[in-house]
Amino acid sequence: MHPGGIGGGRRVEAGMDDGGRRHIGTEERRARLALRHRLAGTARAAGPEAVAEALVALHGTDPATVYLAVAARLAEPVKAVPETERALYEDRTLVRMHGMRHTVFVFPADLTAVVHASTGLMVAARERASLLKDMAKAGAPDAAWLAEVEASALSALARRGQATAAELAADEPRLREQFVYAAGKSYEGVHTVSTRLLRVLGVEGKVVRGRPLGSWTSSQFRWAVAPEHPELDEAGAQSELLRRWLEACGPATEADLKWWTGWRVTEVRRALTTIGAQTVSLDEGTTGFVTRDDTEPVSDPGEPWAALLPALDPTAMAWQHRDWYLAPELRPQLFDRSGNVGPTVWWNGRVVGGWAQRGDGEIVWRVLDPTAGREAEPTVAAEAERLRRVLAEARVTPRFRTPLEKELSA
């Protein structure tokens, strides 16, 4: 069953444009989002693996985002923290690693080889070359020396199972070596070999982040040797990743796909051709793409729904062009200056406001879009209560703070 069929609500009528192509309007795009991203009440998932599978990737730059993104989509949200920890650190069905756009994500374990081949290898080559270049400029030891340190560090990590950079440096003291970065520049700094090397090994798929040092909200992680995976062909891996993402987020424009993957436009076009993607027209007058078997109309959720999504949630950050679910006038309140989205309130497939947690644990929210109406308030309030139970005694402050979140949390 295609994920678009979850829910069993009113069937959305299929339309055609003047050229005979399938037309997918904003109403249907919001219905697809509600169902495929497991946000509507009838579409909620049983566990974190199902959430990650539905979304392809969970943003992991802010550790709390992973847990709260899962909680918003579970039928029983209070299970989000223990079940996500189980999936990440016991069963290893989810893996935290570098992915698209050189960003940390949490992926289903069976997707790690695809991500590594499709996006990781390109980034890894640049990262290693940059490290060697910076070390050479600083007069630090050469590539042969770095290779020795790397092999020693990986052996130590394999013996320990999981370890911090400081623990690895106890086994391999050369990891403590420092070198000056960008000497003479305004941004000159001192880098430690361990910091840069572990980052390179991460994007190369040799190590992954293990358990955090503190609670589930901590941003300090141990490292672990990456699970083995097959080495895949780059073009084939790109086609598979794009196919999975289109199943979750289609229709999407070429610009959306280039932005989300971080690939060159030629790679995006090659992958679209390989999977036989179909073109559709969108309300904005642009061309979108869906997988070849995803042209049938979907059913809407069948009932109104609301969601409180965390900062950097994968739904809010999935598309580059967001006007169909986010009014441009709301962006200054909900995004920081670098384009990172803060905590958002959703109503029937669109962002209508934001939320925050105060120091005493209270969840506060505000609807900024007057078209949501009072009808939304009881459902949003119920979602705030669901979130309060998930957080319990935990306190969460987004890594990238936005104007509305700062105001509400004050």
Automatic annotation (TrEMBL):
Biased segments, Basic and acidic residues type: 10-26
Classification lineage: Bacteria, Bacillati, Actinomycetota, Actinomycetes, Kitasatosporales
Pfam families membership: AlkZ-like (PF06224)
Name of protein: Winged helix DNA-binding domain-containing protein
Span list, region Disordered: 1-26
Top-level division of the source organism's lineage: Bacteria
